[in-house]
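Quick start: what a row looks like.
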Amino acid sequence: MTMVKTIDDARAMMAALVSLPAQSKHHGIDPLALDQSSDASEAIANSDTSWLYRSLIDGFSYQGIRDSHARAYIEKHGNAEWYGVTDALSREGRSSEQELCPKLVDFDSYRGCRYRKVAQTCANPDSLATCPVPKLALRKGVLNEQAFSLYLFIRDECSGDLVAFIDRLLDVTNTGEDPVSAGREELLAAFTQVVGVSRKLAGMMLSQILLNAGPDRERWHAVGASVVVVDSLVHNFLHRTGILSAYEGDHLYGERCYGPASCETILRDLAARLSTPAGSSSPRSLQHAVWRFCAADQLAVCNGNNIRDTLPCQLEWCGLKTHCSRLSLRPAKPTTEEV
């Protein structure tokens, strides 16, 4: 068994991951098998902001809950819609005596709404009875707040046209030595202004949109392919395999997964090392391959359902066992006798 001790070992580990044979028990991994959607491609081509808004809102709704539970809730109760929010904010959507909460005037004013569904409170409780924010039948209050925040961001900061906004932003950043990184960072910075949207969440949803653009938008593809989304599955995989240790980047899951010596930079480096004249592995496709290898509704190999956090992996059927260091995620706490 070869343990991951060096960066070359880490590269070999990732090469083995993306080369898992299709006839194996786990059906193999296509490192380029990112979600493709003809509906998304058509929406981008037609600058269909309402469709893209709903796509983003649906994706945001899946955070912090099992996908099946989020899906069932949306199927039963629906989700925020672009034109529904438009009507709610319009004069025609309110009776003559109803005054719009001053926080809903524009995107900047909306910061700090703090609507909470269970407590039925917000930053401006005097307007809550006639406020359109609570009217959305969403799973929790922060999603209601987020739906209006995203709407106002697109309406005010993007002039109502999300596709044109991304085009302009990527054109402005198309200078310097690394325009792809510049475009990615500016785009993520813009969207993380929306309530409840982290870098991880923004990256996940925006990369799906960018990668579904037509062939006439090459920069969309380049920026989308450069995005790395680090969730706990990806972080834990890099830890258990020994890749974090090989890069001298050991850290706990959280903010340190992004930035210098992080999961993000390690995956970018490994993607570059896997690139060959015959083809390349983008940071996004490599990260997606790791996620698919771990996720319970994908290949479901390297995750907490199969491996106890306090013990080294014992899986004999794992296709990567000859490469993996099999480190425990968290050492077991010593017993009283051991102390």
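That is the whole record. The chain has two domains: 1-47+183-330, 48-160. Residues 141-157 form the longest helix (17 residues).
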